[in-house]
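Now for my pick.
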Amino acid sequence: MSESILQILQQLERAVVRRNPGIAAAMMPPRTPDDVRAELKRVGIKAGVEPVVQLYCWHDGAWPKPDSEAENMGIAPPVINQLPKSQIEFLEGLGVKVDPNKKIYNAFNFFRLEAAVHWAKLYKKFAKSNPKYAALAGRFVPVMSNNTGDHLAIEVTADSSQQVVLISKDQEIREAYVSFEAFLEDLIRANEQNELLTCVRAPGNVRALAPAMKTKTRRPRTTAPDEGIQIIRTSFSDDASWQKLKTKLQDGIEIDLTFVSSRAFDGASIEVLRSRF
């Protein structure tokens, strides 16, 4: 890792911990450069990976407890809203007690390498049938996400300038930072001044990218209801209950079930899951 990037990352850590002390305990130990490169190589990503290597040689992401203050405040100041009046009235109409002053936090949190690689793999998987994902596959590695399913991703092609982009939940790509270093410097500024990231406050232009992979024409669905179902795990607090659920669902059922147990989906809302599957 270059001395300048190392100093920037050290400054970033100090700034993040001052603003969000709880994140300190959630920061994971660093990975080795060879380890990071090997994980990326597993999904066919070899070129332009140095920024990703540098990031995960700093920390292997952060893993705060779901709904904790550390997660709510994120690695940069969050967008904070209150429940809309219409939603409060709807819930109260169902007999649900609602705190009208409850705050809704939408912060970016730092993916673990496992999750970053998993999403890069999903980009590649969905690229076969979706042109939007075909523009992402092999070109970007997402390293952070927020509660609404937006990703901050590093460009990793051989001829890229290592830009960082904002990918919305519907796979729209927006310019965010001209370089990895500019991205880190804005993270520092946001934490030191307790302000939103520039890419959140003033989203950049939409980037129209040609698909990096060929897509296949989708055929009309003619499948039967029992073709197959994916069961996505979104909580990792109780392994025993997960195993019991798997056993119960599989017992005497002929439907082809696929169980997805990846921490990339830890705490994911139904809206995020619907946007990805």
Notes: Confidence is low (pLDDT under 50) at residues 220-227.
